Amino acid sequence: MPRTVMALMLREMATTYGRSAGGYIWAVLEPVLGVALLTVLFSLALRSPALGSNFPLFYATGYLPFAMFNNLTNKVASSIRYSRPFLAYPSVTFIDALLARVILNVLTHIAVIAIVIGGIFVAFQLPGPVDMALVFEALLLVALLATGVGTLNCYLMTAFPIWERVWHILTRPLFLISGVFFLYDQMPARAQDLLWYNPLIHCVGLMRSGFYPTYEATYVSRTYVVTIALTLLLAGLALLEKYHKKMLER
């Protein structure tokens, strides 16, 4: 199994990022441009971000976890379609395909996040300290949540292709309601009551609490995020275990 997963990871590295450094450079440039765009737009309208005084750091700590969730969810959701030719071999299972995409993309995003935020600290000479335990806990929750959502979507999108379009329509507002450019604490009470049920806003709040020592994200519920993630993951695995062979025959 480890050798199979590694082989699938190497294949994806070659096809997704290419055989040159250009693909990996774009993997870093894309979030940098996203953070830069948010910084420029909001710095023109606001005197300071909702936390601290550095616009790039504030938006990076919101945008990067969101981008990790969005990308990882889509990658996991397309695992069976992406590895369909190899799943015909008895030694390759759908679990291998899922694990390969999860491991490779989680490691890639962690590296990108470290490079981008590390670059912001160096470029703007920002002071520490950073609570790395909270940061990695936040990224672990993002990875677990994305894996759960992606696994269930892997079944739904493969069994019902129309679900892919429906999903993209339903999740378009996600960028606006996940705390990327605002703080949950600053929203009206009625909005907080609704936003709390978005598990991503918990992950973003936990991420920011690791970079801002004075920020206490008391609304964050790790239990809620883990419960949602594991429920979706187990449901997705159960459906794939039962129906993946029929789906491969289509």
TrEMBL record:
Record-linked InterPro entries: ABC2_TM, ABC2_TM_bact-type, ABC_2_transport
Membrane topology term: Multi-pass membrane protein
Chain ranges passing through the membrane: 21-45, 57-74, 110-126, 138-160, 166-184, 221-240
Domain of life: Bacteria
Keyword Cell membrane: yes
Domain (ABC transmembrane type-2) ranges: 22-243
PANTHER family: CAPSULE POLYSACCHARIDE EXPORT INNER-MEMBRANE PROTEIN CTRC (PTHR30413:SF10), INNER MEMBRANE TRANSPORT PERMEASE (PTHR30413)
Name of the protein in its database record: Transport permease protein
Species the sequence originates in: Paracoccus methylovorus
